[in-house]
Amino acid sequence: MGLLDVERFLISRGHLRDIQSALQDGGVRGEERFVLLSGSRRRAGEVLIKSVVVPDQTAGTHERGMSITVGGDELARLNRVWSERHEQLLAQVHSHPTFPFHSSVDSRYSIATLEGSLSIVVPNFGFCDMTNLRSCAVYRIVDGQWCWLPPRLVDALVAVI
Ligand SMILES: [Zn+2]
After folding, report:
1. What is the pLDDT of residues 83-103, one digit of tens each?
2. 3-state secondary structure of 46
3. Which of 80, 96, 117, 126 could connect to 24 by a Cys-Cys bridge, CB 3.0–4.6 Å?
């Protein structure tokens, strides 16, 4: 089942801090980092993020900038873990060295692929305010395309609890 019907993603401040420290840990090495958020439905139209995981990943550079690769074995392992916990992948997060946007490489190699999933791109390797998502660029997959969500929509869609 897709996530397009979800009108509210709940995330705790603690999880935002965990994400931020993972991104900064990559940043101080000069590397972008990928973090995956999983969780489950609380009620119709609402999901709760329950786990933040930093997958095994390889940071690399390519002609358009940096990139991150997560291997198929690691993704299969995570899918087993999430399934055992009755969770599903809800959102992916990754950092950029400067300003946040979804590059064509980001879109092509997304890990979150379900309709309605979120992709959150964090600027400055996570050295920014992350008590909410206003510093970040937030995208959602609609009809197979990653669409940027303006801050007003993000405020309505993502609640920090
Ligand atoms: Zn990117």
Report:
1. 999 999 999 999 999 999 888
2. strand
3. 126
- State the distance from the centre of ligand 1 to the C-alpha of 99, rounded, in angstroms: 10
10 Å CB burial of residue 121 (0-12, 13-18, 19+) is buried
Question: How far, in Å, from the CA of 17 to the mean position of ligand 1?
Answer: 20
CA–centroid distance, residue 44 to ligand 1 (Å): 31
**Closest residue by Cα to residue 108 from 60, 145, 61:** 145
What pairing do the DSSP bridges indicate for beta strands 145-149 and 65-69? unpaired
- pLDDT of 11 over the 60 cut: yes
Q: How far is the CA of 144 from the centre of ligand 1 (A)?
A: 18
Residues pairing with 119 in the sheet: 92, 139
Q: Which residue has the tokens 């095994």?
A: 56
77-99: b or e for each residue (b if 16 or more CB lie within 10 Å)? ebeeebeeeebbbbbbbbbbeee
Q: How far is the CA of 70 from the centre of ligand 1 (A)?
A: 14
Cα-Cα-Cα-Cα dihedral sign, residues 123, 11, 156, 102: positive
- Residue 109 Cα, ligand 1 centroid: separation in angstroms? 10
Q: What is the whole-number distance in angstroms between the Cα of residue 103 and the centre of ligand 1?
A: 6
